[in-house]
Amino acid sequence: MALKLAVLVSGSGSNLQSIIDRIEDGSLDAEIRLVLSNKPDAYGLTRAEKHGLPTVALDHTAYASREDFDAAMVQKINASGAEVVVLAGFMRLLTPVFIDAFATIVNIHPALLPSFAGCHGQRDAAGYGVKISGATVHFVDEIMDHGPVIIQAAVPVLSGEDGDSLGARILEFEHRIYPQALQWLAQGRISLKDRHVLLAEAGIPKAALCAHGLVNPPLEDGF
Ligand code: GAR
Q1: What CATH number belongs to 1-103?
Q2: Would you state the CATH architecture of domain 109-223?
Q3: What is the pLDDT of residue 209?
Q4: Residue whose CA is closest, atom 1 of ligand 1?
Q5: What pLDDT, in 10s, does the model give residues 92-107?
Q6: Does this model's pTM top 0.85?
Q7: If you take atom 17 of ligand 1, which residue's CA is the nearest one?
């Protein structure tokens, strides 16, 4: 049965687009019940509308507290019937009102967590001078950018590269690893042992080494 998703965006929504594309090409067994944004002008909402998906804009500035805003989001997501919350460039800190309301919340972060948590993972990694950065898909817990890691892609930092350039190359991997992680969830192949995410094997994975980085666990056909 298709995984019912609520996708939360604050900006461009290119990760949302990658999820839509994988659903439409049949490689991701999911349906998007709701696309929600805290920014009424987020391009991610326009992307969703182009694909006929239900959207909601809740302007966080209209709420008295973070908790009030989170409660409003919880109400909308529950009403949509979504079972998994997908943070895709959603740039608001979440309170326990939200975290405790859902069994499964996942996030994508543009760095190799636990390094460079926060709002500027790409810029911070480039600025620090690391040689390898990347992207992480993880479960969300009560601490920002902290929950158990599902999949990571490592991306080499090029000499003299700034955060924008690095971020663009990381984004290409984000668009592959996020739908892949969601497909593993849809297949019921993910389990947790302490904070270790275990993936049940299915078939023979593609080579772990790609042209521009390393993805672990390896991507499978279609991603
Ligand atoms: C992505 O790079 C995502 O990893 C990042 O925001 C971007 C959203 O792009 N998220 C964070 O930095 C969360 N801390 P998109 O709107 O094109 O998907």
Answers
A1: 3.40.50.170
A2: 3-Layer(aba) Sandwich (3.40)
A3: 47
A4: 89
A5: 999 999 999 999 999 9
A6: yes
A7: 14
